[in-house]
Amino acid sequence: MQSGCWIAEDAQGNLYYFRETPLILGKMLTDTATIRYYQKLTDSLVDLWNRGYRFDDLRLYMEGYISCLRQTNILESFQIHRLEEESIRFLRDPSNFELAMPEPETDYYRY
């Protein structure tokens, strides 16, 4: 997983996937399989962006990925719809595609 990403578990054992900011509670991805597919999709989108592909290419990739999920019936249709909504939100947020700048090392021996 990339930095800035984390998974939280509530008291009932539900897993929640977050990027930089938590998703809206009412539309949060709660199914573990859906979260796993969301992670794979968003990590692939960031990887493709870093390879030089741009928004239109990422959008086509995302639509193909979601279409494959629909064709294989791996997830319920409402789960795919939520995954699609969250993926579109992820794709529209430019902060997800910024390169992290490494922090300079501080020299502890200098005053």
Give a quick summary of the entry.
This protein has about 110 residues and is mainly alpha-helical. It is about 50% helix and about 5% strand.
Written description of the protein model:
The chain has about 110 residues and is mainly α. The protein has a domain at about 30-95. The protein is about 50% helix and about 5% strand. It has three helices and two strands. The protein has helices spanning about 30-50, 55-70, 75-90; strands at about 5-10, 15-20. A two-stranded antiparallel sheet has the order 1-2. Strand 1 (about 5-10) and strand 2 (about 15-20) form a beta hairpin. Helix 1 (about 30-50) runs antiparallel to helix 2 (about 55-70), helix 1 runs parallel beside helix 3 (about 75-90) and helix 2 (about 55-70) runs antiparallel to helix 3. Mean pLDDT is about 80; it is low at about 20-25.
SSE layout and pairings?
Blueprint: E1 6-9, E2 15-18, H1 32-50, H2 55-72, H3 77-92
Helix pairs in contact: 1-2, 1-3, 2-3
Task: Give me the count of strands.
Answer: 2
Shape: flat
Structural class: mainly alpha
Assembly type of the chains comes to single chain
Distance N terminus to C terminus?
A: 37 Å
Order of helices and strands: EEHHH
Gyration radius, rounded: 17 Å
Q: Kindly estimate the percentage of residues that lie in beta strands according to DSSP.
A: 5-15%
User: What can be said about the biggest beta sheet?
Assistant: 2 strands, antiparallel
- Helix content estimate: 40-55%
Report strand order across the widest sheet: 1-2
